[in-house]
Amino acid sequence: MKATALTRSAVMAFYQARGFSAQAISPYADACVFSFELRNSTRKTLHLRLADWRAQTAAGTLRFRLPQSWEAEWARRGVAEPARIAFRWAQFQSELEFAPGDWIMGMAALERRPDGAFRLNIPYVIDGRHREITLDKLVCAALD
Amino acid sequence: MTAVAGAPAAPPLALPDIDGKVVDLASYRGRLVLVNFWATWCPPCRREFPSLSRLQKLFKPSELAVLAVNVGEDAETIFSFAGASEVTILLDRDSAAMRRWPVKGLPSTFVVDKRGKLALRAVGGREFDDAAIVAQLRGLLRV
User: Fold this and answer.
1) For chain B, is the Cβ count within 10 Å smaller at the N or the C terminus?
2) What CATH code is carried by the domain that includes residue A18?
3) How far is A143 from chain B (nearest CA, A)?
4) Are A105 and B123 in contact (CB < 8 Å)?
């Protein structure tokens, strides 16, 4: 698992090029957005859910805001369908089953911006056993 | 690629190609069909895309067809990336076709066997002319 913090300007540029207005995508770009890349290099299928991910910050635990929640916001704001399609499929999907050799990239945003570095715990199930990936010292990209 | 448990029937897929002509998966019965869901903004999709053309060249058209289903983009955007590709590009502008398939992310790829069943799947980028994948496809041709 690889995590890359995305700057506000990069997020804004990506979604504006896909049909979002600057105003519509701002709440997402202002959040702490990461691009995640996950590759299953084992010989077993693994399962994971974005809802289970936890960011351990100095001030407590944060979750990621799920794609379904963002999509409801885009519907309320009247974002055009092509932009919403691009958003939907650019996200790290909320529930995944990874066969051996599968790998995927996707963005996800924390429910709010933490102060300072945090540890991210990503539980998954493989071969009926519960395991966890830990990414330490993650930091949101600066709001530029 | 991974075998699809139970090999269910492939969902329907009938979409316009880049020239507006409707292409129906059902018309490919008797051939293998590799169905790839992609978008130009998706980095692994862009990376694997050339390998789809290389794969197509390794098989006779009567053996294998590659259908690259673009999700949510217009013909101009697609053409500026893909140009004159060896594969058949289909436009799923509203992602309605994609929602009928068991897609869990982009890119996602399925192989439909000669009887119209989902035989193989892959999530994320691949090099489709890789020897192991070519061998899997040749194996399916013999079934």
Assistant:
1) C
2) 2.60.40
3) 23
4) no
Summarised one tens digit per residue, pLDDT across range B104-143 is: 889 999 999 999 999 999 999 999 999 999 999 999 999 8
Residues (pLDDT < 70) of chain A are none
Interface test with B, best of A89, A96, A107 (most B CBs within 10 A): A89
**Tokens, residue B120:** 């193989």
Query: Does some domain include residue A16?
Result: yes
Query: What residue in A sits closest to B37 (Cα-Cα)?
Result: A89
Strand partners for B15: B23
Q: How far apart are CA B91 and CA B19, in angstroms?
A: 10
Residue B130 sits in a domain of what CATH number? 3.40.30.10
pLDDT score at B84: 80
Residue type, A46: L
Question: Distance (Å, rounded) from C-alpha A86 to C-alpha A143?
Answer: 23
Mean of pLDDT over chain B: 95
**The token pair that represents B128 in the structure block:** 């489709």
Total domains, chain B: 1
B16, pLDDT greater than 80 = yes
Q: Three-class SS string for B44-73? A: HHHHHHHHHHHHHHHCCCCCEEEEEEEECC
For residue A95, the one-letter residue type is: E
Has residue A144 been placed in a domain? Answer: no
For the stretch B70-110, pLDDT in tens is 999 999 999 999 988 889 999 999 999 999 999 988 999 99
Coil/strand/helix, residue A25: helix
Could you give the 3-state DSSP secondary structure of residue A18? coil
